[in-house]
């Protein structure tokens, strides 16, 4: 009888923790700052089409513009997956980064000032081999830039990964 009570208590506790985790996940996106950045990009989605794991890395540069009369500081650049890295291509052509997925190693602060009416490029690099054979199929990855006002600009890449 004692074993039955302990088993029931563990089961109820486990179910409670799972419910708490689901509630936390449902609430978390609503708590994030969903304000839009003043930065603009003429293209925010790029589809690589079909790419092969055997051909290795693919990359795309997105133009980011500051159409305002004020300087904008990009505070953070993060990716949605460890298989994706992002770099800021500075005005002098040098790369700043890599920026990656939170929780997957150190991600430096971007702290890149884009002056009024200037632009930068964000180079997004996707590694189709990062997930091994399980990574075959349709992918959808994101890069998010957050500015000093808390506004965010999201860039997206898609591909169909084949072996």
Number of spatially distinct domains: 2
Shape: extended
The CATH architecture designation of the largest domain is Sandwich
What's the arrangement of strands in the largest beta sheet?
1-9-8-3-6
**Strand percentage, roughly?**
35-45%
How do the helices and strands line up, and which of them pair or pack?
Elements: H1 2-31, E1 45-52, E2 58-65, E3 72-79, E4 84-89, E5 95-99, E6 112-114, E7 119-126, E8 137-147, E9 152-162
Parallel strand pairs: 1-9
Antiparallel strand pairs: 2-7, 3-6, 3-8, 4-5, 4-7, 8-9
In short:
The protein is α+β, with helices and mostly antiparallel strands and 163 residues long. It has one helix at 2-31; strands at residues 45-52, 58-65, 72-79, 84-89, 95-99, 112-114, 119-126, 137-147, 152-162. It comes from Candidatus Magasanikbacteria bacterium GW2011_GWA2_50_22.
Structural commentary:
This is DUF1573 domain-containing protein. It comes from Candidatus Magasanikbacteria bacterium GW2011_GWA2_50_22. InterPro entries: Ig-like_fold (IPR013783). Helix content is 18%, strand content 42%. Strand 8 (137-147) and strand 9 (152-162) form a beta hairpin. The protein folds into two domains: 1-31; 45-162, Immunoglobulins (Immunoglobulin-like, Sandwich), CATH 2.60.40.10. The strands form two sheets. The protein has a five-stranded mixed beta sheet, with no helix packed on it. The longest helix is centred in the first third of the chain and has 30 residues, at 2-31. With 163 residues, the protein is of the alpha+beta class. It is built from one helix and nine strands.
């Amino acid at each position: 009888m004692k074993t039955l009570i302990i088993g029931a208590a563990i089961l109820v506790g486990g179910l409670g923790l799972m419910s708490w985790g689901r509630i936390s996940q449902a609430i978390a996106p609503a708590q994030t700052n969903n304000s839009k950045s003043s930065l603009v990009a003429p293209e925010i989605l790029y589809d690589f089409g079909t790419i092969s794991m055997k051909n290795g890395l693919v990359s795309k540069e997105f133009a980011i513009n500051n159409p305002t009369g004020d300087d904008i500081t990009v505070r953070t650049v993060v990716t949605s997956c460890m298989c994706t890295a992002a770099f800021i291509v500075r005005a002098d052509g040098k790369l700043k980064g890599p920026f990656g997925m939170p929780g997957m190693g150190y991600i430096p602060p971007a702290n890149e000032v884009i002056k009024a009416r200037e632009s930068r490029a964000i180079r997004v690099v996707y590694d189709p081999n990062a997930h091994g054979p399980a990574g075959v199929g349709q992918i959808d990855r994101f890069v998010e830039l957050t500015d000093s006002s808390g506004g965010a600009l999201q860039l997206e890449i898609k591909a169909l990964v084949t072996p």
